[in-house]
Amino acid sequence: GAVVSQHPSWVICKSGTSVKIECRSLDFQATTMFWYRQFPKQSLMLMATSNEGSKATYEQGVEKDKFLINHASLTLSTLTVTSAHPEDSSFYICSGSFGNHNEQFFGPGTRLTVL
Amino acid sequence: SQQGEEDPQALSIQEGENATMNCSYKTSINNLQWYRQNSGRGLVHLILIRSNEREKHSGRLRVTLDTSKKSSSLLITASRAADTASYFCALARGNAGNMLTFGGGTRLMVKP
Fold this sequence. Notes:
Low-confidence stretches of chain B: none
Oligomer: heterodimer
Helix content of chain A: under 10%
Helix content of chain B: under 10%
Number of strands of chain A: 11
Radius of gyration of chain B: 13 Å
Shape of chain A: globular
Low-confidence stretches of chain A: none
Mean pLDDT of chain B: 91
Structural class of chain B: mainly beta
Number of helices of chain B: 0
Strand content of chain B: over 45%
């Protein structure tokens, strides 16, 4: 099956700093990548959708200036949480899909803790 | 809400028993997918059922879809302790490409 990796798997940072999370599709070209946020014992909430070479489409309520998404290649997308605050602490999960394939392939997630 | 709603929110059963989880939704869909998530991990795709299908099987998993009732169910037969996880339904809307909207999830615990 298609494999997606994320790095780092967990990160702890101080309030006010920026954190970059990488999402890579290892054995397929992800024409579309998705970023989700998941709070404890809750479902995944879609943050944004990005197509390679295009600007990301953000869901309502997600600040595009705070959560910067770059999808510069078919195998790499990055999410940068700028000026992180404790309320940004969450589990961030990316996924990739290709062509008209209906399935999304998920990364293992990144746990962000902002002190 | 366009999000799927799942019930029960939590389910605890003994090993060997069957587990049934339900997902209801309000919008039209292109397909409905079920995913599994172990605690603190990413999601694993289980089954995709298209809007013109009524039932699909994969090993010990059986998924049904009733588009008239806008509901789906996931049945895990002969459960094992290793099936302990959260299970999510995800809706794929026809005009939204590959975008998925996830339900609230069912936390399944299978006791050995």
